[in-house]
Amino acid sequence: MTKAVNIGIIGAGTVGGGTASILLENAGEITRRTGFPVTLARVAERDEARLKSLDLPEGVGTTDAAQLLADPKVDIVVELVGGTGIARDFTLQAFANGKHVVTANKALVAAHGEELFAAAARAGVQYRFEAAVGGGIPILRAVRESFTGDRIQGLFGIINGTANYILTEMAENGTDFADVLAEAQELGYAEADPTYDVEGNDTAHKLAILIGMAFGGQVSLDDIYTEGITGIRPVDLAYAEMFGCKLKLLAIAKDVDGEIEARVHPTMVPESHLLARVDGVFNAVAVIGDRVGETLFYGQGAGAEATGSAVVGDVVDLARQVAAGSTGVPPMAFQQAERKPLTIRPMARIESIYYLHLRVVDRPGVLADIAGAFGRHGISIARVIQDSQSSGKTVSLVVMTHRAVEQSVQDALAEISKMDCVSEPTTLIRVEAEDD
Q: Which residue range(s) make up the domain with 415?
């Protein structure tokens, strides 16, 4: 039997504890799959109480991460401390010490990935981060390895469980955003400070990783248009249902004439699409290849067990490579020298269908004035819904456009906002659907 491959975990929080539990409790099953032991040799955690709560074997726990990084017995380091500061330092030190690294840290990979990929290559070691996107869904492994025969044309993802849970509850119960958020925090689905999730930042970090892997290039977080769900109201979810759609916080990447669309925003999706049926805290990513067509990956997007499972999957994959003396697949699917800068299509030039919810004064001629503004900017209206019940002196006017250019829609709304018949800012939601 091949000698044991030894694992060291830095950070014993929710995911670190889950990973340690899987490696210890499923050690026999892992050995049956690999043909050799994959042994948890070290766990470094500065919080002694947390370390003791893991009930580790004698001599495995330590409060000194430097001790773990310097330990010659450790072959693979699992970095689970989070953030982009000390986690980056630990990762670079592990590489310098000739150790492979596995992480679930999407912020680190999105912000410093290029530096870390180059450092790993120089050291002749591997860097893996399956758990950084989609929790227990093996989406990165599929994009990195299973789509090598395809040119990926696009991908669409629901990759933040907190946002998806909030939108699901708002749609099903007609509850306001703030009330559902408070409930999600009580249930542990949302952090005390949920900004990172509800403003779309978490989704944008994950999309940056997916884009780099799918399209073979580099993308900056600054290039990804990001809009969260804090402005969504139950009434717009109800109108989405009238139009046969569900509302999701969607990560979108498309290859359009050699340029990459990269955007995160609330999006209406037809009820007939599989993504529309992904509710609660679940995640899903649809990948479209030029040969395979559309595929969907679905599952638990967070949690100790699901994310720990993805981490262990990377650990076992690397353990096999260590045992075989293999260099493995490049971390971003493409050979590093072949990865090229990506041209990101400006948001102003994207094309979409648009849902627009206006509050207007209830008087004759208003619809004609607004339709005229759309017409002057080359925007064709597909459907209009006007409230039959007046709320004081204003009513809702809901417009669904045909496919239009973003800049034209924004210009039209700028003109409409100056009309004295419009009582409040217009709600704009993009729609991913085939035009009628």
A: 347-431
